[in-house]
Amino acid sequence: MRSVRARAALGATLVVAVALTVAGLAVLLVLRGNLTDRAGLEAEVAAREVAGQLALGSTYAELELGDEEIHPVQVTDEEGRVVAVSKDLEAVSGTGTPEVAPMPSAPVPSPGEDDDDDDASTPARGEVSSDQPDFANGTATVDGETADYRFASVELTTEKDVTLTVHAGAPLAAEQEAVDTVRNSMLTGLPLMLLVVAGVTWLVTRRALRPVEGIRRELAAITASEDLGRRVPEPDSRDEIARLARTTNETLTVLEASVGRQRRFVADASHELRSPIASLRTQLEVGAAHPELLDVPGAVADTVRLQGLATDLLLLARLDAGERPGRAEVDLGSLVREEVSQRAADRIPPEVSVADAVPLEVTGSRGQLARVVGNLLDNAERHAERAVAVSVRADRGDVLVEVTDDGAGVPEAEHDRIFERFVRLDDARSRDDGGAGLGLAIARDVATRHGGTLAVGTASGGGARFTLRLPAAGREPAADGG
Question: Contact 31/126 with Cβ under 8 angstroms?
């Protein structure tokens, strides 16, 4: 069953069927119990009435047993022998003995008969037991008709200290008729109610899922046309389907932006690769035709630049693929010193300030973090006039690396844009001097993957200050990656 509507209708119908069945059984049990208890109370009243007559000294022949068809009575002695029964009682069960023929034991004295030890002016009386009577279900045949009865058994003691038991019954026909009527009504109404539940559930589910079908059709159209600018319809309701439509559109927006970035990345990468490849090809073709004119240093420079660009593109691809950084502990102070020591012959050697009094270790990939520091130093040296400074210190559970220069700085409006890929603020400068515009983008991506941040500000001397903040080793990074 592949239809959600069908499954919902079937599930709702099954749940209602189980609930109604359980509730119906409970109602029948309660109804049967109440009616049975009422019949038992009626039988107890009849039994106590006969027992009271016997306790007052009535003989078996003098007993008034009432309507024998409604309340059949059987009286037994302590040995279980029948001493009195209702008129026309032909058979009985549920009273302890099936006998219906009286076999009197010691005769019950008449009301005026006394014992030797009793006061002659006071007739002796027996006693009816006040204990809860015993109840049992059985049958009785009265005047040829057999029916079900609820029997109550009441004990009494006569004035001659004879223990008798009176078994009186009350008919269960009304109870059975009421239970049968309720059961038949339930059996008739249950299928109709289940049909109503299934139909209503089908219609309601169909109406509720109609927007989902619209979302599906639009997604299918987007897939077929590959037009990520289209959006699925959002219903006016505030339910889960509306939230699904909004989330789907948000996902499409992110996907469209991601595909756009990827296309721009491919276009920019192709453009950046074309220049060194063309230059290198030109030099090699000139060298092939005129060996004496081959510019070997220029060819080597173009090759190095091409190799560096390919390395940057490969690293960006790995970062975009979600590559996780390593979990090694890296001393940022030592790492910065190593990077600076390799630049002693640069145009502007950086000045280093490392706080050695506290640990400056972070968790991550040493190679990627070295790439971040190197890119920040390259950027500072490219824009500095006379000085580049690097400092490493601890700050509130983080490790901060600050790289400053005394150049023109970064305009505040461009603080976020400079971290985009292939962005160079000075469009007039040469590619050789300005690079491909990937260094800062790589630096921020690596910082984010390590749970840190990379931001740009203004140095005290007016140049640019790049601040790399990473969580110290042993501290969980912030949830937002910063």
Answer: no
Instruction: Identify whether the C-beta of residue 51 lies closer than 8 Å to the C-beta of residue 166.
Output: yes
- Using CB atoms within 10 Å of the CB of residue 177, give its burial: 0 to 12 exposed, 13 to 18 middle, 19+ buried: exposed
Q: Integer distance in angstroms from the first to the last C-alpha of the chain? A: 48
Determine contact, residues 415/456, Cβ cutoff 8 Å: yes
Distance, CA of 23 to CA of 20 (rounded, Å) = 5
The single-letter DSSP state of residue 108 is: P
Q: What angle do CA 100, 70, 85 make, to 5 degrees?
A: 20
Whether pTM > 0.85 for this model: the answer is: no
The residue among 178, 4, 146, 17 whose CA lies nearest residue 72 is: 146
What is the SS3 assignment for 314?
A: helix
Alpha carbon of 366 to those of 309, 325, 334: distances in Å? 21, 9, 11
Residue 403: partners with Cβ closer than 8 Å, 6 or more residues away: 350, 373, 376, 377, 379, 380, 388, 389, 390, 465, 466, 468
Question: Which backbone phi and psi does 480 adopt, to 5 degrees?
Answer: -90, 10
pLDDT digits (tens, 9 = 90+) for 224-264: 988 888 888 888 877 888 888 999 999 999 888 888 877 87
pLDDT tens digit sequence for 434-482: 466 788 988 999 999 999 999 999 988 788 999 999 999 876 655 444 3
State whether residue 433 is helix, strand or coil.
helix
Output the six-digit token pair for 171.
């008919």
Angstrom distance (rounded) from CA 387 to CA 459:
12
Residues 20 and 188: beta-carbon distance below 8 Å: no
Dist. CA 467–CA 440, nearest whole Å? 12
